[in-house]
Amino acid sequence: xxDDWLHHDRPGVTGPPTSTATSTAPWTGRLDFAIxxxxxxxxxxxxxxxxxxxxxxWCGNSHCGTVGRDELRVWFAHGDADLPMDAGAxxxxxxxxxxxxAGSLPYQVPDRVATYLASHL
Length: 121
Hints:
Blueprint: E1 6-7, E2 29-36, E3 42-50, E4 54-59, E5 62-68, H1 69-78, E6 83-85, E7 88-93, E8 96-101, E9 107-108, H2 111-119
Antiparallel strand pairs: 1-2, 2-3, 3-4, 4-5, 6-7, 7-8, 8-9
């Protein structure tokens, strides 16, 4: 079953390696997830574009920031404080990882997305 939030079939973007035994290149690709407001209404979609050296965060047509791939890996491992980016920040909440976008309250990053991203950085 193909996961809706994991895109590896777009031109110019590679998906997860088919065999970890023969692949030494780090994973690159796209992850996306819906974000919801305080009343539970869907307010948009966040797209994470994982490149060899960075991770771009997009919300709709707005680029919210870029963070270094190594920097994000370290933050996932030891993230006590917010990790700022151009127009937002990665943050931790009692419920898990969240993204604050353009000064908004933090939006929850689904556990499956956060787990996949953290394990593939």
